[in-house]
Amino acid sequence: MRRVVITGAGCISPLGLDLETTWRGLAAGESGIGPVTQVPSEKLGIKIAAEVKDFDPKAHFDEKRLSILDRVSQFTLVAAREAIAGSGIEFSDELSARTAVIIGTGAGGMNTVDASYRRLYEDGVRRVFPMTIPRLMISAATSHVTMEFGLSGPAYAVSSACSSANHAIGDAFQMVRSGRVEAAVAGGTEACITLGTMLGWQALRVMAPDTCRPFSADRKGMVLGEGAAVFVLETLDAAKARGADILAEIVGFGMSSDAADIVQPQESGAAASIAMALADGGLEPADVDYVNAHGTGTGANDATETAALKRVFGEHARRLAISSTKSMHGHALGAAGAIELAATLKAIEHGIAPPTANYREADPACDLDYVPNQAREMKLEVALSNSFAFGGLNAVLAVRKLV
Does the N-terminal or the C-terminal CB of the chain have fewer CB atoms within 10 Å? Predict the structure, then answer.
């Protein structure tokens, strides 16, 4: 098996339009959560979200290109451009044919869906925009990355709700490691702050009315977010040969299914995916320094994740630094794992665990170290990034500082 490293990372999030700005916000404990501006708030009971702010599509794409790009694809391309430019990788014809593109998304082109339905049912217009289907399809973002960079290797979308990004990145990792491809561009994207999506999540009664407080006893639920993060994966040998800067090594990937309930998380399934990531990476529980938790801020998720961590790590669970960056960038659904992996890479680079913001009260069911409210300088060489989705679909990535 070949060693796989990340040489490029790009991110657009509610905390910033690139990775560095996003990281500065995370390290400072800043919040990207605020009043909804993309949706008429008078139609909503929950009036907050974590929106990508000050994003001007015309600064990135010409009018003709914008006509075929939903917001979800726009985010993907902005993040992919940053990742590929930062990597310094050059795609020859040979490498292009041996590079995979795998992008995860939970919902796809929801802005296009909402606009089409509004046109049909509210405005009474009988025809929809001709490019509606190419804009809204789940695989659109993947296709646009392949076309912009001329990448002709295996390419597909992954949709597994809130684990979509981790599944996409994990698939890419396994393909590079096994030799099926030489490189991969992988990540996750979501742009789901629309009236229909907000009302759907509101109906589930899992949305917080004020802010996201993961692991805090007074937590009231999740806050919907949006954004994208994309990564360049290649072999360690190839990265060294071209003198690339290496952000981290992916060493393990674990995935499982709860096979139990469509919305209620299960400790056993979460624990299985964590344990598998450790085993896949040849890691002992004591090797792990930091966990970027799924940490949605709902009562069931946070208690279940805590129990799963204690099941796998035993006494070492109390020595882990654990944080939920969703407390700052919201829950970006299919993009969540990608944004959180970007945060984890920067945490390893700087030796800083980002905080769990908005934490106020200890919960007996959540009794570990959640790095409350303030970032922490620490030894940080091995980390996990957890994603646990509706439907019991779990995916965990293990990453390590290259030594």
Answer: C
